[in-house]
Known about the structure:
single chain; about 300 residues; alpha/beta; Nucleotidyltransferase, domain 5; 2 domains; 5-stranded mixed β-sheet; 9 helices; 15 strands; globular
Amino acid sequence: MIVSFDIGGSAIKGGIARSVTDIVPLARRPTPKDNFGEFVAALRGVIAEAGEKPACLSFSIAGVVDPDTQALTCANIPCIHGRHLAADLERELGYTVLIANDADCFAMAEAMSGAGRGHRIVFGAILGTGVGGGLVADGRLVNAAGGFAGEWGHGPIIASFAGNPPVAIPAYPCGCGQKGCVDTVGGARGIERLHKTLHGVELSSEEIIGHWLKSDQQAQRTIDVMIDLVASPLALTINITGATIVPVGGGLSNVEPLLVRLDEAVRDRTLRKFGRPVVVPSQCKLEPGLIGAALLGLQHVGEHDHAA
Ligand SMILES: [Zn+2]
């Protein structure tokens, strides 16, 4: 048995995992953001609730472990930001600790028990507030030891013109320090940014999508431009990785017509000509972070021959 965690900015979710198909969520707890002692105490509470000694602990966290220094970048939870979190938690809690990025856990969940089942190479894409992703090959998370693989949201690559007729797109500055990242135009905040640039109107992404679904002309233009900007880097990602399926998670993945449009635009641009949808809605709608972390933990325990 292992205990997996999904550490979010507002809640810590825990779960007990005995197998790929036997993952049981535990009670949620608020995330202590500023006090590491309280953070550890909250984890202890989850482990106590599990009621038996786990073979290891695995975590899905909205942050990235630097593969060189092992330091975690997690801006929204200051008490763990910058820490060597796996080592710190192993010392505090006395168990083997695995830490993985939430987009990586999402990709793992989809590859093993979601829309990616049966595919050798699965690229999980997040279209939420921003843009993220994770890569699983032959059932293995490419970032199992930390790292930036799958981060198709970042890099100065957005086209200077997009849409039909083409309109000039500014190279918006991104939180990562670059300009013109997919993250600046591809998620909910990106749609809002594009809409403001194109029409001078500030609306929420929900409003823009709602208008788009009612065939509002301004919203149609915004979504057309967004799809045009996002489809090329996603097609390139498919060409590079050899992924044969791209399950999409995050809030925008719930807008099915948006994914249908994106899938068509992406498949127009990939080298391989797929005769079926490739960019598809995720299937692990409930707790993908918890499931993905659990799968990583179970895999680790299986390979290290601990008693589960
Ligand atoms: Zn960026």
